[in-house]
Automatic annotation (TrEMBL):
Species assigned in the record: Pontibacter burrus
InterPro entries: VWF_A, vWFA_dom_sf
Transmembrane spans: none
Coiled-coil regions, chain positions: none
Region annotated Disordered, chain positions: 107-127
Positions of the VWFA domain: 179-277
Protein name: VWA domain-containing protein
Amino acid sequence: MALGYRFAEYIPPEDSKPSFETLLKLFLQLVTISSGDVAEALSWLSSLDKQYNLTSDEYGIGDFIEDLKRKGYLDENPQERGSFSLTAKSEQDIRRSALEEIFGKLKKGGQGTHATPHTGIGDEASTDRREYQFGDALEQISMTDSIRNAQVNHGLGEFRLTEQDLEVTETEHKTQASTVLMIDISHSMILYGEDRITPAKKVAMALAELVKQKYPKDTLDIIVFGNDAWQIEVKDLPYLEVGPYHTNTVAGLELAMDILRKRKTPNKQIFMITDGKPTCLKIGLNYYKNSFGLDRKVVNKTLNLAAQCRRLKIPITTFMIATDPYLQQFVDEFTKVNNGQAYYSSLKGLGHLVFRDYGRNRKKSF
């Protein structure tokens, strides 16, 4: 008897409508794109619901909003009914969502430089135990303690082992790293019909969450640069927007070097996410700007700082999300002067490259 396939019309199950968790994932994506504008994100969600029938008669967008408030994701402005702001819980979930989206799909492999969620596992096991967290390696799980927890939590009648039962052995890292992540917020990051700032934000949030979970002794500072440069907190990332700015790479590098100068860790590095060339300098109280071609006055100052970072043993890894040949030529020269690394990445591959290099660089002394 020959084996074959039998095809029939697919009838989705009645309970296929998204649950709160499914809608929450979509909402967190939208609120990141809207730079923390809850009203705009909910408006987009309503439009998607109208177009794709995301909800049902039993559970609508209004029910979802009430659940967001009840579960601590939104605060309602008492002075203006219907006006909401994100809570700290939402901000943390946005970071976790970014980590899972960018990093969680990668599988553990053999030795090498591949990006995996297990890169940088601690060198030595300690006697400390803690709850399982996203990204922990299987070999860290303490099976004896985990099975004991399952028996306590679920009883002896039927053995079940859930994620909540798992305990892992904490590890200690022999190396520590201080990283400054520079994000370009010049106007070109949203020009030409391409949203480049949202992927950059997601990478920054995911990296921040990874450092918090896996490398608690490391430091990660985030700065943004346009006409000027300034430091921002991790909690500010969902609200980050581009401005009508030029690209003052010099200001960004100077601030990054100042931050790293105060760090006492053995490994120091700068990651820079940008889509363009330096076009701006601040001279005294005035700005020198030139967007046409590669202005040697701006470029030479930028290259001088790259060389200075090299002398201080601070490598710069540049993630260029643009493909113009003359921009690549500048990045090649910048990288050669610093003895750093450069990647010409699509937005889709940006997160993988950042995570790979973070895990690889923190293991070596610069």
